[in-house]
Design a protein that fits this description.
Blueprint: H1 2-26, E1 43-50, E2 57-64, H2 70-83, H3 85-94, E3 99-103, E4 109-111, E5 113-119, E6 122-129, E7 150-158, E8 164-172, E9 184-185, E10 191-200
Antiparallel strand pairs: 1-2, 1-10, 2-3, 3-4, 5-6, 6-7, 7-8, 8-9, 8-10
Length: 202
């Protein structure tokens, strides 16, 4: 008797599981959650730039007046693949500035591309300008080459407040052997940005 009751209970359980599986299969698939919207502009980020090779600290400001749409970035990648790096640099020079980088109180480096990329812990900012970043302290390191004509700053803004970043003073725009966009930074050690804080601009 016990065996027959146990068998019946097992069959009932299997039927319930089968019904649940059928209901799940018939239920409409949920659309993936939309990525969070970028912060309102204008906005800026400030932090301390640490020279890991030459020593010293510099104050850095990155200001954004707008963010570059993904379609524009894709078009630049297509241009790089079809026409090469020089054509992309010329295009960056022709594009309007949508932000700038400034080290201490020196002259600003105007930014042609300002990417906003959501991440699991916050978001990433990639700022690119059509020239090398050669502020005082980096020129002494001899970063002078026409093969690496672009300067970049990458900020990883985290919700926990522990935001970091790096400055890539001279970058070559290229694809790897698998056809993936893979820019190469000149040198071995980027300059680290610490104590980054986000600030609204009035």
């Amino acid at each position: 008797m016990f065996k027959s009751i146990r068998t019946a209970a097992t069959l009932a359980g299997l039927i319930l599981l089968a019904c649940a599986a059928m209901a799940a299969a018939q239920a409409p698939a949920q659309a993936p959650a939309a990525p969070p919207a970028p912060p309102a502009v204008p906005i800026q980020w400030m932090g301390n730039l640490i020279n890991m090779q030459g020593g010293g600290t510099t104050f850095l400001t990155v200001r954004a007046y707008d963010f570059t749409p993904p379609a524009v970035v894709d078009a630049l990648k297509d241009m790089l693949k079809a026409q090469g790096q020089t054509a992309v640099v010329n295009e960056l020079n022709a594009m309007p500035a949508i932000g700038y980088l400034q080290f201490d109180q020196s002259l600003a480096y105007y930014v042609s591309v300002m990417r906003y990329i959501p991440t699991p812990t916050g978001y990433r900012i990639v700022a690119a300008c059509a020239r090398q970043i050669g502020f005082a302290g980096m020129v002494r390191q001899g970063i002078v080459t026409t093969q690496y004509p672009v300067g970049m700053v990458i900020l990883d803004i985290n919700k926990d407040g522990k935001s970091t970043g790096q400055v890539l003073p001279a970058v070559k725009l290229q694809f790897d052997k698998d056809g993936k966009f893979d820019p190469e930074a000149y040198g071995t050690e980027p300059l680290r940005i610490l104590n980054i804080r986000e600030e609204k601009v009035k």
